[in-house]
């Protein structure tokens, strides 16, 4: 009985650092995903916004979407709202990842990171109609 208890204690003591390393690896993988997605979302939000297709020498603004129909404008505005919402969520996750990577031993950074990652993932399916 004593031997079983001591083996159980040893096994638990060895498993704790392994579990912590696995959690750190999972968070690091999520942060890698954030680092790839966030810049793309920034660009996507910029692309959906109004762009200048005028002559750069004249300084006159000419909208690239000047001839779009009201339905096309509505669809583009909807896409932009989605991308801006996603960008904001992933920006917070990016900042949380950087703070966590700077100090992985701080439990507050880990908790903030897990929360920010969950919020960022939730933006993947967010739609403006659901407000």
Structure, described:
With 131 residues, this protein is an all-alpha fold. The protein contains 3 helices and no strands. The chain has helices at residues 2-48, 70-102, 107-123.
- Helix content estimate: over 70%
**What is the overall number of helices?**
3
Domains counted in the coordinates: how many? 1
Strand content: under 5%
What key attributes describe this structure?
mainly alpha, single chain, 131 residues
Topology:
Layout: H1 2-48, H2 70-102, H3 107-123
Helix pairs in contact: 1-2, 2-3
Short description:
This protein has helices at residues 2-48, 70-102, 107-123.
């Amino acid at each position: 009985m004593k031997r079983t208890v001591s083996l159980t204690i040893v096994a638990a003591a060895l498993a704790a650092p392994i579990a912590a390393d696995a959690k750190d690896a999972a968070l690091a993988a999520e942060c890698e995903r954030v680092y790839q997605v966030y810049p793309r979302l920034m660009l996507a939000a910029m692309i959906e916004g109004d762009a200048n297709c005028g002559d750069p020498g004249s300084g006159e603004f000419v909208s690239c979407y000047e001839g779009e129909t009201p339905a096309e404008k509505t669809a583009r505005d909807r896409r932009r709202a989605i991308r801006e919402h996603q960008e904001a969520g992933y920006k917070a996750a990016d900042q949380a990842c950087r703070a966590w990577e700077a100090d992985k031993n701080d439990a507050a950074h880990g908790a903030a990171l897990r929360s920010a990652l969950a919020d960022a993932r939730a933006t993947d399916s967010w739609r403006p109609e659901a407000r």
